[in-house]
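Reviewer 2 asked us to include a model.

Predict the structure of this chain.
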Amino acid sequence: MNANDLKIGETADAFVITAVGRANFEYAVPIRELVNSNEGRKTIRVDLKECTAMDSTFMGVLSMGGLKAVDNGSGFEIYNASDLLKRSLADLGVDELFTFHEGALETGAAAGGASDMLRTAETVEEAHRKLVEADSANAERFNDVINYASADVERLKKQNNPQNN
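Predicted model (structure tokens):
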């Protein structure tokens, strides 16, 4: 991922995320952190105009935001998604978590963020759990990913804190 492939900006009423290229697990950590820190204060808008594909971790983090928006009454909106991207979300049964729009967005001041391996593994695990939470039919599809990511989280925690071994 290049520094310009994921942009997160803030306007007066929303956070705006712009994803370029293939949105994958590398994009997920900063989005997860934004979703978890937002607590319904602002709408989150995701512009997918230049996004060519999404992996399941990225879709899981979007679903995490959509589920939180449903719970706290804020909004989670997706702009300019291609038919392929909409179909990918529909295939996982999570498209109803979002409001879809077309058109230009005010992007606001941009910020980015690097992630470490533990945060990435935690994000992969949580994102896939949210896909299962959003649609239980995804459990069979992502059970192995969740188990692998969970084991990776535990391994990395032990590696980062050897006295807990």
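The chain has a mean pLDDT of 87. The radius of gyration is 16 Å. We have added this to the supplementary material.
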